[in-house]
Write a structure and sequence with these properties.
With 142 residues, the chain is α+β, with helices and mostly antiparallel strands. 25% of the residues lie in helices and 38% in strands.
């Protein structure tokens, strides 16, 4: 068994969302509607992250289309460096604080040291890609 595996077993309950960084949110929303018949079920501006999001429902999960609301936001910098595309994966957890502590115990690098408010009334915390094999991970408690 890998070190830390027993500590985190079972904490991820399902995929909450896959986030895609885009420059033009209306165009991305139109693409999903026209190509897949997938409609936006929630829109929100998250001031603390300087993004606007549109959630497209896929079964019990979402595609989270995100666009920066300021030129110096992390998502704006991401698009500038890497272009549009996959930004992060959000995993649902029953308890965000507990899941974050379990990840911290493995020695992984964290973006958030404590959980914080997320969109649609969730509680979230991010795990840095350097601590997660190159993938930015968001822990999401509904």
């Amino acid at each position: 068994m890998m070190q830390g595996a027993a500590t985190t077993a079972g904490l991820l309950t399902e995929i909450d969302h896959v986030a895609v960084a885009v420059r033009d949110l209306p165009a991305a929303m139109d693409f999903y509607a026209n190509a897949f018949g997938a409609l936006v079920v929630h829109r929100e501006t998250i001031a603390s992250d300087a993004v606007e999001e549109a959630l497209v429902a896929v079964a019990q999960s979402y595609i989270q289309l995100i666009t920066p609301t300021s030129e110096d936001s992390p998502v704006a910098r991401y698009i500038e460096r890497r272009g549009e595309g996959l930004h992060h994966v959000g995993y649902r957890v029953a308890n965000c604080a507990e899941a974050l502590e379990a990840v911290r115990a493995t020695g992984a690098r964290l973006v958030d040291q404590v959980p914080r408010p997320g969109s649609r009334g969730t509680t979230v915390a991010f795990v840095h890609p350097a601590g997660a094999f190159g993938t930015l991970i968001e822990l999401v408690e509904e």
